[in-house]
């Protein structure tokens, strides 16, 4: 990875001491509870054309040193663990980190620019996806999960907002972002059998039932969340919903959902079968990420979508 932890404008990344040495910070492109994300252009490209600048642009996540994440605090340690996990996971469907500038006033992280929007926005705009496009998203996300799970990492917060795209018109390259709840089970010795994690976490509509039951859990929680996402993509609404979280959690624990004929009549049986397997209350009966990638429905529908995109891009 080279110059990951970086300690006027420098001639090279090795000489850079702060993010301003390498990048000109542009417009805000995102905002979180503790950070702002801005577009960054390398200073060396100032004389280049706009197209060349755009191709080398990065996203810069600026995290101010507010109370709770000061140097030496538990919040600061948790942030470094998040970045450590994401930096080690080099995969085409995981947002890549380039540099981390640990500066006095803020921590500035440069990473892959994904300005094609997130899956949450696409679902709102589209209302429902064609099966080929949904299968392409599932394939990319499941491929990333397979890579992570084989290395002992559980994402734990899989939801449409944490899936972004580099291209606003193509869903074939989804990338996972926001590793704040990811857990490396190897660092605590949780690597084999049913032993896993106990800490409750996740987003209400996507959390797996075993987490709500306060049981020890493992990477299967990510496949449950993927099932919720696939269901939502194909019909435009989530499988589990209630305004009161307590009631919602009871519905999730019971695995109580339906394929309403008005919305699911035109969806293929193989698609519904995969959802049923992913939304199995028993985590031991859910398919793994690698099994999901190899599902016939995913493979065939993804291939059809790929052909469709290639046809659209022909001059």
TrEMBL record:
<keyword id="KW-0067">ATP-binding</keyword>
<keyword id="KW-0547">Nucleotide-binding</keyword>
<keyword id="KW-0808">Transferase</keyword>
<keyword id="KW-0723">Serine/threonine-protein kinase</keyword>
<dbReference type="GO" id="GO:0004674">
    <property type="term" value="F:protein serine/threonine kinase activity"/>
</dbReference>
<feature type="domain" description="Protein kinase">
    <location>
        <begin position="23"/>
        <end position="298"/>
    </location>
</feature>
<dbReference type="Pfam" id="PF00069">
    <property type="entry name" value="Pkinase"/>
</dbReference>
<dbReference type="InterPro" id="IPR050205">
    <property type="entry name" value="CDPK_Ser/Thr_kinases"/>
</dbReference>
<dbReference type="GO" id="GO:0005524">
    <property type="term" value="F:ATP binding"/>
</dbReference>
<keyword id="KW-0418">Kinase</keyword>
<dbReference type="InterPro" id="IPR011009">
    <property type="entry name" value="Kinase-like_dom_sf"/>
</dbReference>
<protein>
    <recommendedName>
        <fullName>Protein kinase domain-containing protein</fullName>
    </recommendedName>
</protein>
<dbReference type="InterPro" id="IPR000719">
    <property type="entry name" value="Prot_kinase_dom"/>
</dbReference>
């Amino acid at each position: 990875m080279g110059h990951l932890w970086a300690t006027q404008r420098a001639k090279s990344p090795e000489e850079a001491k702060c993010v301003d040495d390498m990048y000109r910070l542009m417009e805000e492109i995102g905002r979180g509870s503790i950070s702002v994300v801005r577009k960054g252009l390398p200073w060396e490209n100032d004389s280049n054309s706009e197209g060349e600048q755009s191709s080398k642009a990065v996203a810069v996540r600026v995290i101010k040193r507010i109370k709770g994440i000061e140097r030496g605090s538990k919040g600061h340690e948790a942030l470094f663990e998040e970045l450590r996990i994401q930096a080690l996971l080099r995969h085409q469907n995981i947002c890549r980190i380039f540099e981390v500038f640990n500066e006095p006033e803020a921590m500035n992280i440069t990473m892959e620019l994904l300005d094609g929007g997130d899956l949450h926005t696409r679902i709102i705009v589209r209302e429902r996806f064609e099966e080929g496009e949904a299968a392409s998203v599932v394939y990319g996300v499941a491929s990333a999960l397979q890579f992570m799970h084989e290395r002992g990492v559980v994402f734990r917060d899989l939801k449409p907002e944490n899936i972004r795209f580099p291209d606003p018109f193509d869903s074939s390259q989804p990338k996972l972002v926001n590793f704040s709840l990811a857990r490396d089970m190897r660092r605590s010795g949780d690597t084999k059998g049913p032993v896993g994690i106990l800490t409750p976490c996740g987003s209400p509509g996507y959390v797996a039932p075993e987490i709500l039951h306060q049981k020890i859990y493992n990477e299967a929680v990510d496949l449950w969340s993927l099932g919720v996402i696939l269901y939502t993509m194909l019909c435009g609404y989530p499988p589990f919903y209630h305004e009161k979280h307590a009631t919602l959690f009871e519905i999730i624990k019971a695995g109580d959902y339906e394929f309403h004929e008005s919305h699911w009549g035109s969806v293929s049986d193989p698609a519904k079968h995969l959802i049923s397997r992913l939304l199995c209350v028993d985590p031991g009966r859910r398919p793994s990420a690698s099994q999901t990638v190899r599902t016939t429905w995913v493979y065939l529908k993804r291939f059809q979508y790929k052909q469709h995109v290639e046809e659209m891009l022909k001059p």
